[in-house]
Amino acid sequence: MSIPANITQLLARPLGPRGSRAMVGSADPAAELTPVAAAVLAAIPAWWSVRATRAGLADEWTDVHFAVDVTPPLVLGETPPLEPDWALLTAEQVGAAYVESLASETRARHGRHYTPHELAGELWSMTKVALGMKQPVMQLPGLVRDPACGAGALLLPALREHLAASAAIDPRLVLNRLPSLIEGIDSDPAAVWVANVVLAAEMLPTLARISEAHRRPLPALAHVGDGLAPDRVPARAVLMNPPYGRVRLSDADRARFAKSLYGHANLYGMFMAAGAESLDSDGVLSALVPTSFTAGRYFEPLRAHLTSQLRLESLAFVADRSGVFTSVLQETCLATLTRRRVRKVTVRAIGSAVEDVATIASPTGGNPWILPRRSDLAPVAAAAAILPNTLSSAGWKVSTGPLVWNRRKDDLFARPANGRHQIVWAADIDGGSVHRDASRAATRYLALHSERDRHVMLTTTPVVLVQRTTAPEQQRRLVVAELTEDDLARSSGGVVVENHVNIIKPAGDEQLLSRRLLTRILSTDALDKLVRCISGSVALSAYELESITLPDAQTLKAWESLPREELERAVARTYGLPGQPAR
After folding, report:
1. Residues 6 or more apart from 345 whose CB is under 8 A from it?
2. Which residues in 133-147 are b (16+ Cβ under 10 Å) and which e?
């Protein structure tokens, strides 16, 4: 986007953290508008004039300051000439131009991110289904709110649909009713002004249908405020792409959100909980969230809290973020939860097109939700969800290797010596056994300096090792090896496991399956498919690994003596893959 050359000096005002409030977080200072952001705001009145003229309006209605009942967040000065590329921008592109004009550190610090129109449209489509809006175009059945609306991207599809469905209704009634049907809230005054302008631009054709004598300024549908404030008018639908970021809580907020928090608070989890709280009796909560929301330990209380009030009705994984969400590092999904007691959740994948993956039982509770990312994983997800045990309940616990190598650089050596112990790196794990990867030859041993150091760092009993992160090009996500008594004997009785490796060890005196069988089961194709239904990324946490589901004790006992090919087939059948060939 070109920036008009003759922008006058603008008086910038501070921007508050998007979606935050003084009582929630005050660690970051308010950011100032950049010159580029000020230039974007200054160009919007000229963009409005073009849109109004195209709608058949003239005179004062081409002046955004007259036509929209909202005050700009700063003194815009003289409106610059509109550059040709700006005249062609859509409402979504104008909003994106503002967000992208903010300094990158400002966006990162305050969790501001623009929602691509493809995802905004898909989230609204999912919300429509959950609301029971079965016709192609329908009027809104109640209030639609975005409590962290930014520049209004998520509200645009809902507003367009309502206006299109209201074409036969008195346009004055249509415009008068909009504030009770669309509400945006954000703490960034500039973003709220942009949201009001782009939303009002969608109303221009409706305004043009009103005789000039009866026209009134278009309503402001967004306002500056605290999206987490309690006791709002109940909404039929809450849409959000909430801000991300850790925050410090007041005692009152800590108490209010206690049921949904684990450890430190993250803004987006608080927005999810507050959104559920603000729904009416037929309400729907729809949000863009990281996929860790569906399985990570950190969000276990939030999953339990939400599903105590709502049911997951649809979920779409963003399978390919290139071109639609490149500025967000987290793996992303779109989730719709409803107050209706639905039994099934529809799972989709969003790439170059939207693909139906599966319809399975709607998950409840805080445990990781087993959800297929691809259609071939659907049978595994369905079968695994009803198995009676987990790795944890079968008597095994998982921890992460204690060695963070870059904190112990001075203690890494290529050769053994007194006080040095062999390191097991992630690259050493493959094919069911531990070997020495040549790429780690220069850092094969760690020097330990005290009894406490040895106690923390050394693994001295046989365990099962699992790569915690895998490369995208690796065929398997579940890469396993057994660390045996012989391995330990060759390593002076103990090894040091680095932190890209998960360690599975007995929890107590009794386990439902042996260490050897556990290694063999985790090495099967069926279990590799299962972990892809729990973690959609290349990382597999200790918590997620402990949640892997297993069959009953009798079945596990019967598997102990099976040869490799028979075990592969037996596991495949148990996890919904009958007839699978042996690997």
Report:
1. 311, 312, 313, 314, 315, 359, 360, 361, 362, 363, 371
2. beeeeebbebbbbbb
Burial of 71 (0-12, 13-18, 19+ CB in 10 A): exposed
Structure tokens that stand for 203 in this block: 């109303």
C-alpha of 386 from chain center: 26
Measure the CA–CA gap between 5 and 8, rounded to whole angstroms: 9
Six token digits for residue 256: 């209010």
pLDDT in tens, 285-298: 999 988 889 998 98
Query: Do residues 296 and 544 make contact, with C-beta atoms less than 8 angstroms apart?
Result: yes
Hey, which of 78-92, 396-410, 459-473 has the most confident mean pLDDT? 396-410
The separation between the first and the last C-alpha atoms of the chain, rounded to the nearest angstrom, is 53
Q: Which residues of 24-37 are buried (b: 16+ CB within 10 A; e: fewer)?
A: bbeeeeebebeebb
**Starting from the edge strand earliest in sequence, which strands make up the sheet with 311-318, in order?**
222-224, 182-186, 144-146, 235-240, 279-290, 332-338, 311-318, 344-350, 354-361
- Angstrom CA distances, 68 to 85, 160, 196, 223, stand at 24, 17, 8, 13
**3 φ/ψ angles, rounded to the nearest 5 degrees:** -100, 125
DSSP assigned state of 187: S
247: nearest Cα among 134, 111, 353: 111
Q: pLDDT tens, 329-364?
A: 457 899 999 999 999 999 999 887 888 999 999 999
Strand partners, 287: 240, 335
Sheet holding 501-506, edge to edge: 396-400, 501-506, 463-467, 480-483, 432-434, 429-430
pTM: 0.87
The residue to which tokens 């803004």 are assigned:
267
